[in-house]
Amino acid sequence: MVERQADMTRDYSAIKPISLEDNSGYAQPTQSVPERVRIDSPAADAMTDLSRVTAVIILPGDTVDEAHRRMIQRGVRLLLVVDQDRRVHGIVTANDVLGEKPVKVAVQRGVPRSEIQVRDIMTPRDRLEVLDLRDVQAASVGHIVATLKAAGRQHTLVVDRDAKGRQRVRGVFSATQIARQLGIAITTEAVARTFADIEASLGR
Q: Is 16 part of a structural domain of the chain?
């Protein structure tokens, strides 16, 4: 058997290896979203698709400071809060991390802010309203803007079903990303201001 395997490789020459250069990175999943969309563009054009872009996650027991560092490193303003089995427990946003929540919890418990954990300030799963991917696929960007505005949130999650029929988070919509794709300069992270800027631009 060994001889047969050796014979099989006679028709193949080894590939010449090269050196790994300094500062080499590594390939990561990428999603190419349109740089610009219109209010009547397909909603999917503004969705971060987690089947094509790796979700940025954090554990409930990680600190708020770690969540902030991860957001900066990955250039995102929302993290999925998951457990060791990758089950989603909620979300934490930049507004949660940088707003009053950590300070209030620290004061209430009489502990330093550095000890506050993600679970203390996140929006838990049972308080999240999500969108069905099938509805998103039939919607326009305008529907997503209206949905985010009605909820008073900067982000919303999109869900579908896996091969076993279990619900999973498939995508994320961000009001600020939609604004950028609409060509609107957002000057604040305040929810109401974001939508006011969008509506003012569309009204011009």
A: no
The Cα 65–Cα 41 span in angstroms is: 37
Give the pTM: 0.81
Would you state the pLDDT for residue 187? 54
What is the tens place of the pLDDT at every residue in 111-152?
999 999 999 999 999 999 999 999 999 999 999 999 998 888
- The residue type of 76 is V
Helix axes 191-203, 141-151, angle to 10 degrees: 140
Residue 11 falls inside a structural domain: no
What whole-number distance in Å separates Cα of residue 83 and Cα of residue 168?
14
Is residue 9 included in any domain, yes or no? no
Residue 23 domain flag:
no
Count of other CB atoms within 10 angstroms of residue 165: 6
Kindly provide the residue ranges of all beta strands, DSSP E only, lying in 41-143, ordered along the sequence: 48-49, 57-58, 78-82, 88-93, 123-124, 131-132
Structural domain span for residue 163: 34-203
The total of other beta-carbon atoms located within 10 Å of residue 156's CB is 22
